[in-house]
Amino acid sequence: SSHLQKKRRAATARRQHLKSAMLQLAVTEIEKETAAKEVEKQNYLAEHCPPLSLPGSMQELQELCKKLHAKIDSVDEERYDTEVKLQKTTKELEDLNQKLFDLRGKFKRPPLRRVRMSADAMLRALLGSKHKVNMDLRANLKQVKKEDTEKEKDLRDVGDWRKNIEEKSGMEGRKKMFEAGE
């Protein structure tokens, strides 16, 4: 049993090592991503927001203010459009997720396993204790007995079970059954 414990300990240690390695990898990936985002932000700001140089005269200052207001308006419009697009996409995503959820609910497939089964075993599984017939077809072919054909004749005389049910249904059927002593 000590050998088994050593094996378990080794497996646990390996699992712990893998977990810490994965965490370390995740941390470095997050750090890289953060740095890349920061660089992207700096580049965007450098391109879209040139450094501000304040002009000397009142006239130039007013011009600058007008330009800044126009810029603010266009950026605001852009932001609004992006927000609307995002809301629309989010709604579509939610709808699709709901559809997916509904579909999953409707078609829950049971986990099926492939099973090798003889015809005999299959009939036994389906019919349970009622199954007495042997499915050795060759044997059945060789031994056709007179009494078997008699049994089949009796079965044919019984006829369609649906007719029997219909005849026995309703008040008329009950009366017949009562009279027949069933």
TrEMBL record:
InterPro entries in the record: Troponin, Troponin_I, Troponin_sf
Molecular functions (GO terms): actin binding
UniProt keyword annotation of Transcription present: no
Superkingdom assignment: Eukaryota
Function: Troponin I is the inhibitory subunit of troponin, the thin filament regulatory complex which confers calcium-sensitivity to striated muscle actomyosin ATPase activity.
Quaternary context: Binds to actin and tropomyosin.
Name used for this protein in its record: Troponin I, fast skeletal muscle
